[in-house]
Structure formats: structure tokens, C-alpha cells
Amino acid sequence: MNEIVHGVDPRDPSIPALTWAADEAVRRGLRLHLVAAVPPAHDRLRYDGSGHLSTLRLRAESALANAEDLVRELRPGPPTQAELADGTPAEVLTARTPHADLAVVGSRHLGRVAEVLSEGSVIVPLTARAECPVVVVGAPAHPAVHPPFLVVGVDGSSGCRAAVAFAVAEASLREARLRALWVWPRPLLSHDDVAQGLSERRRLLAESVAGWAERYPDVDIEQEIVRGHPVEELTRASREALALVVGRRGHGGDSAIGLGSTVRGLLHRAACPVITVPPPRATGTVGTAHGADRAQPRTDRPAPAG
């Protein structure tokens, strides 16, 4: 059963992330799977080890119960499942992504080094290894902006094509516009032919979004090229967006390197939720409702829910 997976942090539950996950479950007509993980004790010989673990479990159980109550109060309707699992949060959540449409987590606003190295680090390893798109809600969406819009970063790669496919479908579900943004870094050592380079990038940008307007005539897709640093320009574009969608380089591997510097920077700096979309596997199957065929325009559009 496809579902929306939300990681509940017992130490610092994120209401914006929970609300995002519940809204997506309602919008798509899917189950909301709430997961809290209890990491193993590092030193089982300590006399207080079992007591500490029991405290962690009680805290996680309480956080799950509170999350269920809040969903019923704020977003009644989606069926929910609460799960208390043993293991590190990143590993537990990643294991539940193959059959999920989305995995949604909140940001604890840690620095980049702390996020990678801290005991409870979730965002980087989950985003790098998940088999479905991952939503990191560190800053709220901007629903007051009319008409609402999403931003998708485009660079011509296979990961970008998967991100565009997801972003168009998401914009349709939300009745929003889509800004397809190509950030062209300024050269450091040489001055290339600006006119020729701009023309080439316009062509590649058009190819990246080709076919989607016909499949989703309700979505207004804007194409834009800007010069500058990708993290800075995409962060600027995110300031009034519902979400920023970006592609991921590959599957698994090193959790920090696999994401690329742009995605890692955006996870900490974007002014709206960031959705990282994995590239399609060689088999062409990825466990999300937005398509096992995210790299190509789909001919059977999902009906908007909610």
C-alpha cells in the first residue's frame, strides 16, 4: 500500500512537517504512516542503560500519540498508522521508503557538520538513500502568495528530469504554477560566449520541460535562466514558493557526497520545504504514486485529491 511516511522526532516534534505530511495524505487519498525510532543504547553495560532506553521508548510513544491526536484534530480523514521501531531514525525511515509516495521530516536547524555527524542525524542520510522523494520541512510553505507556485531546479541531468516530472504533477495537485529555473554559474577564469551559452541553456531547459505542458494543461510552466551560484539563486527563488523541488544524483552511496553540494546547501538554506527526488532506477520502477516512470511524461494523469 502506498503511503506518506512521516518521521516523528520524540525530542523535537515538527508540527509544520506533520501538517505537510497530513495534507499530502489527504490530497492524494493515502495512508499517513507515523514512525518514531528508538536508537540502540551505545553502552549496554552501564547500570542505567535499560532505564535510559525505557525513557526513550516512553518519549517516542508519547510523541506518536500526540501526533495522531493532532492529525485527527487538524486534518481528519486520512487513515493513520503509528509505528514505534528500534534502530537509528535514518535507517528506520529509509527502510520504509520503497513503497511510499513521500517521506516527510522536519529540520532541527542543525549546522551542516552537526547534521551529518550527530547521533540523530536524519536529513542527509535519508535524503541521499530514500527510494521515494523526501520532503524536508525546515521553513513553512507560503500559501498566501497568489497565484501559488513551486520551483524546480533544472540542469539537464537525469536527476533533473525526474524532479521536473514530480514537480509538474505536484503543481497540478496543488493548482499551482511551476517555475523551472536553470542557474548558470558565472565563470571564474574565462569569459565564455555569453550569447551562445545562453542560447544553448535555453534549448536544454526547453528540452527538460518538453511534453509536460501537453500532459498537464492546467499547469503554467515558466522557464527562466539566471546567472549566479545555484544555492544562492534557488534559495532566493524559494522565498515565496510552496516548495522547492530538486533532483538527486544517484542511489545510496555516501550520504553526503551522493547529494551534491547544491542539494546539501538548499536543505539548510531554502526558505520553504525542499523536496529531493531520486532518479529512476534502471528497472524504471520507483515506489511512488507520482510514477515509476518519473523520467518521462506520463499519459495517465493522477486525479487531484482533496
Describe this entry's structure for a reader.
There is one protein chain. By secondary structure, this protein is an alpha/beta fold. The protein contains 10 helices and 10 strands. The chain is globular, with a radius of gyration of 20 Å. Residues 43-47, 112-120 and 283-306 have low confidence and may be disordered.
Q: Secondary-structure blueprint of this entry?
A:
Elements: E1 3-7, H1 15-28, E2 31-38, H2 49-74, E3 80-86, H3 89-95, E4 100-106, H4 112-117, H5 123-129, E5 134-137, E6 149-153, H6 158-174, E7 177-184, H7 194-209, H8 212-215, E8 221-227, H9 230-237, E9 244-247, H10 261-269, E10 274-277
Parallel strand pairs: 1-2, 1-4, 2-3, 4-5, 6-7, 6-9, 7-8, 9-10
Antiparallel strand pairs: 5-10
